[in-house]
Input
Amino acid sequence: MNNLNKQTWLITGATRGLGFQVAMAAQQAGANVVATGRNLQKLEQAFGDTKNMLLLELDVCNEAQAKVTAEAAFQKFGSIDVLVNNAGFGQLGLFEEVEQTNVKVQFETNVFGLMSMCRTVLPVMREQKSGLIYNISSIGGSLGFENASIYCAAKFAVEGFSESLAMEVKQFGIDITIVQPGFFRTDFLDQSSVQFGTIEIDDYAQYGKALNDVYHSKNQKQPGDPKKLGQMLVEIAQKPERPIRLAAGSDAVEYLTTAIKKRQNDLEKWASYSHRTDINE
Ligand SMILES: NC(=O)c1ccc[n+]([C@@H]2O[C@H](COP(=O)([O-])OP(=O)(O)OC[C@H]3O[C@@H](n4cnc5c(N)ncnc54)[C@H](OP(=O)(O)O)[C@@H]3O)[C@@H](O)[C@H]2O)c1
Output
């Protein structure tokens, strides 16, 4: 498992951004890579004929396609050692300005797609008695952000799911690592990926626009280097012990530290109330 030359990595959403860089890093380190994306042509343009690589069309919302992909990956390389659940996008916008149908698409992609990939690959890993699943979350999976309630809700779901699943599959030698990137320079905030609310509510007009402008201004100026994230995931996959949560980026460490301290402070400040609800027998 820890010899990268014999590992097979399966990566979702590899046409660009973090997924592309993780795929390249794993391939360059000697792994077999199954790079998947919802548009085969885009994948071919991105990777050309890179060796030890299988390119497969996969929309993570399509459960049947997920099954076919895992089977093809196993047939080609004989194992699936690392699954990188990366495919996703940001549904931003104020909660009341996001249509419920868009909320559902966000969960279908970022949560249910990720779960369906786990469901598909776990039997292979159980049989192997080894495996590693990287579930790409976000700092928004541990703390809330204005204008990102739907995205954060989806990433919080990813984290609750992953933390619990990790306990269930540890016995089979399978590790789950939640990756929490800060702001990385990908197309995440580009209009080719990100979605904003489509409902206009007068009460929110100025506030919403100011928040959207903040995100627009960060596009392609984010501090995180996707290539370095890819290399870090490759390095950690080779370690005998992997963390349940892995922050990526100095900004991520800062946001998460502040959030954890705030939670701890709130817990302590209100503890006398919290203890009052016990049944005293
Ligand atoms: N960049 C950041 O600052 C940041 C921070 C925290 C977390 N993340 C997370 O990192 C992951 C990758 O994002 P990124 O930054 O690399 O953004 P990106 O450059 O926009 O890439 C997103 C990738 O996900 C794919 N994708 C979207 N929906 C899909 C679906 N239904 N099935 C298969 N693939 C799908 C896209 O495919 P197409 O090319 O076909 O659109 C693309 O390959 C996401 O889960 C995101 O939430 C990013």
Summary: The radius of gyration is 20 Å. The domain at 4-252 is CATH 3.40.50.720 (Rossmann fold). DSSP finds nine helices and seven strands in the chain.
